[in-house]
Amino acid sequence: MLRRQLLAKVPQWFGFSLFGLNAADAQQPPDHKSLKIMMKSAWGSDDPTRASFVFAHGLALAEAGHEVRIFLTGEATYLMRKATATAVFPVGWPPLSETLAKVVAKGIPIFS
Length: 112
Known about the structure:
Elements lengths: L1 H12 L9 H4 L9 E6 L6 H16 L3 E6 L9 H6 L8 H11 L3 E2 L1
Parallel strand pairs: 1-2, 2-3
């Protein structure tokens, strides 16, 4: 921390701050732009990992501040049944029932 503060003052010592070369300005994060994202899936319970992707990724994008909508087609529409959602356990991800509950709590619209 002390090193970073010291290095941030070096351009001022040599007069570089007059030319707009301020080290503190170089580390400012870029402005966050919110996107509108429509996610589509046709994967059903026969491939539980791929079926869960649309919900897990949609949730992550919504938590990052983007506006997300999920559109389910074909076999994926069966995932909206409570009995099917509780039976889907993707590899390396939380159960679909948990992810789906978080998606609903976040207010992400799901169309099927």
